[in-house]
Amino acid sequence: MRILLTGANGYIGKRLLPLLVAQEHDVICMVRDPRRFDLPATLKEKVQVVKGDLLHQNSLKNLPTDIDAAYYLVHSMGGSGHDFSDLEATSAQNFVTYLNITTARQLVYLSGIANVSNLSRHLSSRLHVETILAQAKAKLTVLRAAIIIGSGSASFEILRDLVEKLPVMITPKWLNSRCQPIAIRDVMFYLTQVLGNERCYGKSFEIGGPDVLTYKEMILRFARLRGLKRYLISVPVLTPRLSSYWLYFVTSTSFSLAKSLVDSLRNDVVVKDHSIENILPHQCLPYEEAIGLAFTKIEQNMVVSSWKDALVSGNMYLNYMDFVQVPEFGVLTDKQRRKFERPIEEVLQNIWQIGGERGWYKTDFLWRIRGLIDKMVGGVGLRRGRRSQTELKAGDTIDFWRVLVADKEQKRLLLYAEMKLPGEAWLQFKISEEPDGNYLEQLAAYRPDGLLGRMYWYAVLPFHFIIFEGMIENIITYRN
């Protein structure tokens, strides 16, 4: 089948793509910026990449029309503005307009379980998108899921943060809401198996794992699997806004996503319609087995995708690949350059493992203080960590930085700051081979925004002398 995959750069899309290719489908990936779509080498010759922005109808004019099916994997869970539901509706309507001029026979949409009254704004928006997509000539198949558990998923990472960092938790009452989590592996099963299945045309299905748990039970079971003793004290006084702040400060999530989650968690999300079992009988993984499998992938450095890959996890512009060159003019810089005698591969490995569990090679406590300040002013802080401690690719996050360039052949790593700043900041590491030896160049560049931006640079300048000189020295000398 010839398939159009939207959201190909997202958490679900990145996992679905290789499965579709393995099933010998002809896949066309629609992305907003092909430059930041980092395809594995094994897939580059097997898929077609097209550029399109669902918020702009004109950008869809050049999309292929000779397709058999399409996946709509687009949503704005991290949307913080009051108009996010309007944007989702516009995206869906634009896609239907395009799809109606194609030969597509089926449209597959991954939504959220919405079988109760008084839905949250985000679940209501998902339901509204369903009604819009149902207007397409292609037959709509909807899969409604609750929390998805898998390495790199937002739900898994938030649970991990809560369990591993807080021995005692003062928790809001929504922890008593019920949920039916499902493993990412099972979501992939249903997404691939409904494709081309005429018994699924024009139908909506609810999917979930075998366990129905409260969020409190999910946290305690997670803790038990990690060999940790945790105590939860529920209080009725945490308002939704206070709960959002609580979740934001103790986990790696952004505030907009925390607010969306808290808004949604007040609803029970439990499967009531089991009709998919009659069409696609399948034994889903239990919750604890899904958690164990996620940690296996993490320990093996096999995390395929992460929710942090999405730009909603930070504050960067959608066209961030426009920043892949550090500006030459109008910037303030701290440049360090050192000659080294070690093998280049060892120094490059140290560069590639910066941040996350490894830390920043110098005065990590100052980085943690900066991360805490960033959280207090609404930034992403340091809690996002890394997708993998050994691998990097463009689009990855490293704490409060975004990877713009990770080119081992050119021996260059370029990061762009997603912390709250009165300006823009870059951090670059580059190794050069010269006649008299090998050199590591470390460049911190900052383009200030007005007077406040300049005042900020000079206020932190004394710390730069402490941090950056020690950082380059330790990157060169660090040994595992």
What features would you describe in this structure?
The chain is of the alpha/beta class. It has 13 helices and 19 strands. The chain has a 7-stranded parallel sheet with strand order 3-2-1-4-5-6-11, with helices on both faces. Strands 14-19-18-17-16-15 form a 6-stranded antiparallel sheet, with helices on one face. A two-stranded parallel ribbon has the order 7-10.
Provide a quick synopsis of the model.
This protein has 480 residues and is of the alpha/beta class.
Q: How are the secondary structure elements laid out?
A:
Layout: E1 2-6, H1 11-22, E2 26-31, E3 47-51, E4 69-72, H2 84-99, E5 106-112, H3 121-133, E6 139-145, E7 148-149, H4 154-165, E8 168-172, E9 178-179, E10 182-183, H5 184-193, E11 203-207, E12 213-214, H6 215-225, E13 231-235, H7 240-250, H8 255-265, H9 276-279, H10 287-299, E14 332-340, H11 344-352, H12 364-376, E15 397-398, E16 401-407, E17 412-417, E18 423-434, E19 437-448, H13 450-477
Parallel strand pairs: 1-2, 1-4, 2-3, 4-5, 5-6, 6-11, 7-10, 8-13
Antiparallel strand pairs: 9-12, 14-19, 15-16, 16-17, 17-18, 18-19
Helix pairs in contact: 1-5, 2-3, 4-6, 6-10, 7-8
Key traits:
six-stranded antiparallel sheet; single chain; 480 residues; alpha/beta
- Strand order of the main beta sheet, please? 3-2-1-4-5-6-11
What is the general shape? globular
Q: For the CA atoms, what is the radius of gyration?
A: 23 Å
User: How far is it from the N-terminal to the C-terminal residue, by CA?
Assistant: 48 Å
Mean of all residue-level pLDDT scores: 86
Structural class: alpha/beta
**Low-pLDDT windows of residues:** 311-318
Strand content: 15-25%
